[in-house]
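Sample 3 of the quickstart, ligand FE2/S2 (inorganic) cluster:
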Amino acid sequence: MNLDRRTALTGALAATGTLTLAACAAEPEVAATTPPSATVDQVEPATSGETLLGPTAEIMVGTGKKFEISSALTILVTRPNQDTFRGFNASCTHSGCIVTGVKDDQIACGCHGARFNTDSGEPEAGPAKSALGKILLEVRGADLYALI
Ligand code: FES
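Result:
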């Protein structure tokens, strides 16, 4: 190999390396995690300090239902047994995603896998270290109210 040929080959290899690096640098960034979409009932406050959520019969034992009270507050109501309703701020204490709902007897967050107790709101699995915020509820006749 003479000097001109060696110089040309070295230049070609350097150009290939540059193209490879450029290709790596051009890879798209990983999309940021977004909260899963979910169905949320939107409700209007009945009076200051309380909000009618609806009939208790709409929340079956062992399930939960979300209510968007405002752009800043979504409530998850759970029904761990026939006579018990629990209200929680649906904003996950790990990183703020709105929890998905009740799955396999736990409140589930779809963002990073946190699980919370449906009766106490305490974390039971995943990255969350603190309980969901509690919301006071009141049953009046056949209806459920949030006291905010
Ligand atoms: S925001 Fe809920 S697990 Fe991360």
